[in-house]
Design goal:
Blueprint: E1 8-11, E2 14-19, H1 20-28, H2 34-48, E3 64-65, E4 71-78, E5 92-94, E6 101-102, E7 107-108, E8 118-124, E9 140-146, H3 147-154, E10 159-161, H4 162-167, E11 171-173, H5 178-187
Parallel strand pairs: 4-8
Antiparallel strand pairs: 1-2, 3-4, 5-10, 6-7, 8-9, 9-11
Length: about 190
């Protein structure tokens, strides 16, 4: 059930002054952390493609579904991380095939594969720590490839660098073009 943040913690069946929103603020404010940035990227893509997912499902076989039924896997990377860095991070994305888990049936697939139809690679492209802002959609760049192309060109490879990704000629877009890019990749 989707929460609104006003839910209260309980103690001995009595509401306390602790609200769920406080937990979210305490736990979810570092948008540069790898795990949270990945979830933020999924949210951004979900909004761009008007995904049918009502809420994020942890560990599902793919991340999002569009109204037309396209299954999307979202991957994210950034040059600037939460921790102090001597230099910006090298960009790479995970693309490993896996035994997908179906949340609706609580079952694992029998074969190892990439379960989505399309991959959206999200790059938080700002390199300056003083100006990086994951909430600024203008700082994100998106690269879209069909899973079929990834399978053909990369086989069972587990990660892909940005340079290798660019050599595959993905559809490259900003936030406002993302829905069209996903559709275009499916039409190829």
């Amino acid at each position: 059930m989707k929460k609104n943040g006003e839910e209260r913690f309980l103690l001995r069946n009595t509401e306390t002054d602790m609200r769920l929103l406080e937990f979210w603020q305490w736990n979810q404010s570092d948008l540069l952390s790898n795990a949270l940035r990945g979830m933020l990227a999924e949210f951004i893509v979900a909004k761009a493609v008007t995904a049918t997912n009502k809420m994020r499902i942890e560990w599902d076989a793919f991340d999002l579904v569009t109204p037309s039924g396209i299954k999307i896997e979202v991957k994210s990377a950034a040059y600037v991380q939460s921790w102090q860095q001597a230099k910006n991070s090298a960009i790479s994305f995970g693309i490993a095939p896996a035994k997908g888990w179906e949340a609706g049936t609580n079952t694992y697939a029998t074969e190892i594969k990439r379960s989505a139809d399309v991959y959206v690679f999200c790059l938080l492209n700002e390199k300056d720590r003083s100006t990086v802002n994951p909430l600024n959609l203008d700082q994100w760049e998106f690269f879209v490839l069909s899973t079929e192309q990834i399978n053909q060109e990369k086989g069972n490879q587990k990660t892909i660098s940005l340079n290798s990704l660019l050599k595959m000629k993905p559809v490259r877009t900003e936030f406002l073009g993302l829905a069209e890019a996903v559709q275009a990749v499916m039409m190829k």
